[in-house]
Structure formats: C-alpha cells, structure tokens
Amino acid sequence: MTETVSPLAPTSFPEMPDIKGVRLATAEAGIKYKNRTDVLLASLSPGTTVAGVFTKSKCPSAPVDWCRQQLGGGVARGLLVNSGNANAFTGKTGVETVRLSAEIAARALDCSPSEIFLASTGVIGEPLDARKFEDPLHGMSGRMTTSWLDAARAIMTTDTFPKIATASVEIDGVMVHINGIAKGAGMIAPDMATMLSFIFTDAPVSSAVLQSALSREVENSFNAVTVDSDTSTSDTVLVFATGAARQSGLEPIDTVEDPRADGLLLALRDVMQDLAQQIARDGEGARKFVEVQVEGAETDLSAKKIALSIANSPLVKTAFAGEDANWGRVVMAVGKAGEPADRDRLAIWFGDVRVAVNGARDPGYSEEAASEVMKQAEIVLRVDLGLGSGSFRVWTCDLTKEYVAINGDYRS
Amino acid sequence: MTETVSPLAPTSFPEMPDIKGVRLATAEAGIKYKNRTDVLLASLSPGTTVAGVFTKSKCPSAPVDWCRQQLGGGVARGLLVNSGNANAFTGKTGVETVRLSAEIAARALDCSPSEIFLASTGVIGEPLDARKFEDPLHGMSGRMTTSWLDAARAIMTTDTFPKIATASVEIDGVMVHINGIAKGAGMIAPDMATMLSFIFTDAPVSSAVLQSALSREVENSFNAVTVDSDTSTSDTVLVFATGAARQSGLEPIDTVEDPRADGLLLALRDVMQDLAQQIARDGEGARKFVEVQVEGAETDLSAKKIALSIANSPLVKTAFAGEDANWGRVVMAVGKAGEPADRDRLAIWFGDVRVAVNGARDPGYSEEAASEVMKQAEIVLRVDLGLGSGSFRVWTCDLTKEYVAINGDYRS
C-alpha cells in the first residue's frame, strides 16, 4: 500500500544490545505477502517468565484466547508471530490452528506447546493454515541469528517502518537490558490489523512482578495511543524475562515490594512509551504527531476520557491535517466527553500559544502565532479544565485524505 | 464550500400545508454569509405550547442555556434562528447576546422576551452582535410570508440542501398537520455547526404531552443519526403546537393517557425520522446512506451502543466509501463496543447477503454478491448477535476524502 515511510518516523534506529537467553529468527512462509518475511520465532531460555495484556475486544482472536490461557503458567520458552493473517473470527478452525501452530513451534524449540506464545496479524475471517509454519520452522532453532530490526520487520503489515526500542538500567551493580519491538499503523490497517508488541529483558524477575509492572505501564503507553478509536481483535503486549542477568550475580526480583523493581519499571516505561509513540507516528496517512495533554480534571480517569474524546474526534483530527488552530472543535470534544467540565473555566493552548481562557477566546489571541504552531510536524495541544488535579496525556496523529485512501481505496 | 448537492438528497420536496398560528419570515442580516438569508423568525399565535430537547454537551451554547431556561414556562410566541455564528463559547458576551436578541424579537412580535426561543449555528468562539438583528426584525411581523423551503434555507450552514418534512393525521374527524425543518450536514460543519430542527403543529396539545412525545421519538430519530460521532454544543430540537385546530372543533389533548395522543405521536415520528434521515443523507462528503440494524442484543440499549460503535467506526465508514464488503471491520466494531457479544453466535448481512454466521465466514459467501450490494447508494448493514431480543437502528453515511477536504482544507 503505502510505499513511502511516514514523515514522522524516527530519523535513526537505536543500537540494540543482546538480551541473553533470547534468540530470534525470521522466515518467509508466504502467508499473504510475497518476497518478504512474515514469521518471527523467538527462542527463550528455560526459566523465562512472562506477563501479558490483551485487547479488551469482546471478539478477540484465537491467538489472544490461547495466550490468555497459557499466561497462567507464568513461563515461556517460545514466541511465534506471523503477519498477513490475524486468525481472528475463524471459528473452530482458528482454535485448531493455534493448537497446531504451538505444537509445530514446540517441536522446533524442544519444549511443551503450553510454553509457546502466539500472535497473528493481518486479514481477518480468512482461515490460517498452520501447516505453512512447518517448513520454515523446521530446523529454525539452528539458524537463530536475526537482528532486532529484522524481527520488527517480519511482523509489519501496513507499518511504514519497523519499531524497536531499548533501555538499560543498573541494578545491584549489574546492567540489565530491555529490548522491545512493536507493529501497528495506529491499531488499524486495511483488514483491521493489530497493535502487537513484544518486550524482552534479561532481568531475573518473577512473572507476578512482571505482570504488575506491565499492567501499570500499559496505561500511559499503549493505552494512551490512538489513531482512529478502532480497537483491534488482536492487540497483544507480551513481556518476557529470561533471568540471564542472574549469571552476573543479580538476585531475582520476586515481589513488587522489592525496591529494585522500581528501576526496572522505569526502564520498561521508557521502552513502552517509545514504542507507543512510534505507533502514533506511523498512524495511517499521518502527517502530524499530536500530544494531547489534559489537566485540571476532577480525576485522572476523567482526564483520560476527555483526552481520548479530543484525540479521537474526526473534526479535531482534520483540523490538525488542515493546520487550522480550530479550538472551537476542542471545546466541542471536551463537551461531548460527558465528563465534568465547566465551560467558563476552560483554557486551551496550541503549543505555547493560549487560544482560549475563561470560557472565551483569549483576549490576546493571535491567529498568526497559533497558525505558526499548527505548521509544525509535532504539536502539543493542552487543555486545562480548572476543576481539580486529574491529568492524562494521549498521543495521536491527524486525519488526512491519505487515511481514507489507505482504508477506502484498498480492496483486501 | 461544497457547491454541489449531495447525491443522496431527496429527488423532490413535499408540498407543505399551512400550519395555522405559524407565520414565517427570513432576512439577510449579514452575520457571516453574503447574498443569502441567515435569519429566520417564526411568529406563533397566543397559547402555543412548546417542548424541546438539547445537546448533551457539557459545554452548551448560550442559546441552548436560554431555551432550557424558558422551557419551564411551556409557552412560546416566537422563534429566532440565525446561521453563520453559533454564539457558543462566547462567555458573558454570549449571555448578553441572547438576552438582547430575545428583547429585539419580543419587540417585533409584541410579546415577552421569555416567550422567545433562540437558536444559533455557525462559527463558534466569535462574539455574535445582537444588534445585527435589529434592522432585519424591525417591522418583520408585517412581512411574514416566507415558504417553509425558504425557512429551511435560511438556517443552513454547510448543508447542501434544505430539509423539510410534513405529516398529517385525522383526530376526531379533524385533520391536523405537522411541518418540520432541520439543518445539519451530519451534526458537524467547518466550525462545528449544529443539528437544529424546528417542528410546528396546529394540534391543540399541552406542553407536557408534547414533551413526552418529543422525548420518546427523539431516541429513534435525531439520536439515531451519526455522521462522525462529534456532538455539537448547540443541538436543538423544538416542537411548537399552536392549537389552531381547536377552531375546527378539536378538543385539547392534555394528558399522555389521552388515546388521541397516539396518532399525533405517529405523525410526529414520521416527520422526525424523515428529517433525521435527511441529515445523514447530507453528511459531509457522503456518497452512501447506510442503515445499521443491530438485533439479538441483550437489551435495546446494548444494541444501540453496538450500532453506534459500528456507525462511528472510521474503518467501517471508509470500507463503505471503498465499496468493500469488509465484514471483519464490523466484527471489530462489535467487539470494541464493550457490550455483551459472543463471537461464535454473530451473523452479519450486507443487504440480503449473509457474509458471516456462527463466528466465521458464511460457508456460502459470495464476494461478488456482497460487492454488488456495496455498489448501491443506499445500503442496509444488519448484525444479529444471537443473544436476546434487544434491537436498534442507526442511520449514517460513509467517510470519504471529501469529508477530510471539507473539514481539513477549509480555514474558517
């Protein structure tokens, strides 16, 4: 579809350190795309712990059901991801496919199928033939030398660039690393593709601590990104901790009360927020990256609802596309959120330019100054409700004709 | 902006009967537009009852605040509507404007300002100078001979055609009439214009009965239309009953228990649903009129939330624009609604073509047959959840590049 890379893409990719205990391989299984990789297999050393969060959709994909089921065990030996087919809304066939896929991956990695985690992204409603994994995965464990960038490339659908991020933190004198990859052109794609992210660390950390950190940080990272308000059937974030840093003398972090968990949490936050931003930057047709900051709300939850109401409003998003400092539409989006708001206390800024205050246009309003802000590729929109101390921040992008072209012109 | 009439516009306008007790006039006040009418004044005979419903926005416009306040009286002598400026988010100035506007209209119609109802639509955040009404309204009561079509034209903003509807019903041998006008290019417009509708009848009916009928019927008419999920600050529906049919011997309908209220309610429903459909047909950039029917939900409310989730989904709307029978996106929209749904009981139809059943693609699915349906200008999308007997129907339109052009290219 889109041949060109998003103008909002990062200008360079970070150097990714090795994560001991993680090995990666990619292959071409020909699921839908030609002449590109579409399968990622990650091998995880014995003792790897795992945590996950998934779509809130009431119609989740078969791989999401599978992962939820296996997560109870808290351990993982492998991750199999494919692009080109989401294995969603495929009925009993889809359930059989995940069972068979896990068996094939388990044979390749010499572990139990219940230790295999699965994710699929792409067309929905099409049966996915698990046997397509057999040849590519056969003997794959002997060829696991793929780069993180190649791993991120194998899981792309309408993404215009691969998404990788890394962070390191010293704990008890031992440097531990966190690497993450993600895909998603804004949670959406021609056939309702998905937001997927897989994060790996060598920190020795229990699945309970990992789950607690992930559940906490997802709120301000992946759950704070929106391109078009459409939630996929397949959204999946998995974090794997191989514990390999234990070989350097690091004692395991087994409880959330362990103060060393904080450092790890901050590093995890860096990786997750970095990847989440990249997804908004690769929003379909996006030409503007917009950070919506809502403050002065009664509660953080109220601020979140208002921030999402603004970030999802087609009128606000088209105003950004048109470089129009149309704060009236922001007022509309605040008003329609249904959350406590007092028109006469509302203040709105585009960048540093205050355009509205006390429920009316700012007396010192300069159309020229506001227009200057709107011409930027990255814009901060700030709203102060003047009611309390609740706040939230959402990342999004503009709504362009290119978005309609990608999703309307294309026939799957 | 848009010079051409929506291809979904009605092919002819209905003959509108006179409503005794109602006189209309329009004028050019030069509020924003040049060389077109932008003010509508309706004179209502003494004893006219009134009912209203308004935007649920937490940031309503000054005229909405005014109408809510006056509605308690239950009587009306005049209606003043202007296009070109919404008088929304205008602070204390806006409050002063509605007070002054009501005074000017009251002078023209020789009544009390509290008997004047007001509505404004157009740019928001710009002060509206009430003195602009003085000259046009001066002596206007002597020139009140405007047609219903002209009345509907005077309140248009980005609408591509005026919206009028009529229905008649015989009660106790007396024919009573209901005429309505509306504006709204899908609840939205370049400066977040509004959905406005004004309905007039000569039936002798108390304001309590009128309010009960209006509140009940608005749910399946104006509250069942969406173009882009953006709720305006100014949405207003007012119904006026002059009671002039009493002169033909019709006894007043004073309680909702009066069985004669039912006939009136059905006629009111016809007018409201007709006008609501016209709004979706004039959705900005619309090329397809879509009726979303959800049935088999646990409750009607649940069906409504799912129907709106489908009708507001940018991915579903762009699929209609692309004539793509992409039922996977419908599954996605059902799933994201957060309402009870069982993936494996879901069935989906485009027109008469069942595309999905029992949580998977219909075994007899024909891409060709589905594509044929998608080429039509009017499409019914039906979803059966298979859970209960809750149902709801929403009217909407597709999301086209023209929508983005209208709202993104245009600088107010």
Automatic annotation (TrEMBL), chains A, B:
Keywords: Acyltransferase, Amino-acid biosynthesis, Arginine biosynthesis, Autocatalytic cleavage, Cytoplasm, Multifunctional enzyme, Transferase. It is an enzyme of class 2 (transferase). InterPro entries: Arg_biosynth_ArgJ (IPR002813), ArgJ-like_dom_sf (IPR016117), ArgJ_beta_C (IPR042195). The record marks A193, T194 as: Cleavage. NCBIfam families: ArgJ, PRK05388.1. GO terms for cellular component: cytoplasm. Pathway: Amino-acid biosynthesis; L-arginine biosynthesis; L-ornithine and N-acetyl-L-glutamate from L-glutamate and N(2)-acetyl-L-ornithine (cyclic): step 1/1; Amino-acid biosynthesis; L-arginine biosynthesis; N(2)-acetyl-L-ornithine from L-glutamate: step 1/4. This is Arginine biosynthesis bifunctional protein ArgJ. Catalyzes two activities which are involved in the cyclic version of arginine biosynthesis: the synthesis of N-acetylglutamate from glutamate and acetyl-CoA as the acetyl donor, and of ornithine by transacetylation between N(2)-acetylornithine and glutamate. Pfam families: ArgJ.
